[in-house]
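Sample entry (285 residues):
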Amino acid sequence: MRFSERYGFKPVREAIQKDGMDVELRSRLWNCVDVRLCRVLDKDAHFTEDLGETYRQILTRLWDRHFEATLDGMSPLVGGVIAQIKEAHFAADWPGVYDLVEFIAQELTEGQGESFSDLCNDVLAEEMSGYRIVGGEVAPIVDENEIRAIEAALGDADKLAGVRAHLQTALKHLSDRKTPDYRNSVKESISAVEALARVITGKPKATLGDALKALGTSGDVDTHPALRQAFEKLYGYTSDEDGMRHAMTEKGKVGQAEALYMLVACSAFISYLIAKAADARIKLT
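Predicted structure, serialized as tokens:
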């Protein structure tokens, strides 16, 4: 059994669903299609005789333009057509699922399309998808470089158990599909930087602020003052009364966007500090 399986940690690309789609996300996206399209229709209706013109055109275009299939292959009953669409949804590869969702978002009328997109976006956020529906199109919200930054930091910190554990826990809190803990994800991200700064400075009890100041005065590790100051401010955000602790009293202030930003930013800074320590011939253990 792999380490990630033993301790419940998922690879970054699996935790943030950018290059794939798990069963839960696929199923919940179908629920969106079902609620906003399929359940609006009378399943017992005859497709050519009893179905309203608007929805007959939507389903016809779906069959012709999206599936690119022959129209005589459609079931004569609406319920049969819905069953065929559902079968195609669960048989498609993951990009194909997004193609279907995008097509429906664009085909529904303005208000219905927005309602459908909003419902899908709620699911995409809850299931940690790297995509959202924006203006009727499925668009990435997580850049490939952001994923690589997290992966690189986990690799760079492979021999630094404390640093790696904080990063993995931050990712775990962020990617928990049932009960995400964004506030503690932010704390773990900044704690990973703090743990590394303590190792580099040889000050095991220093706060991140003190450790960063020590990096600036020791001269052993050549870090740019602006970068140190930026992370001092981020540390202040997580620890000061006007920062994270204050935000915790206001529901919704610390969300997925903040947690993801902090994980990416801290991961990049960790890789940077490890590289600078290597340049200074400082052995990190």
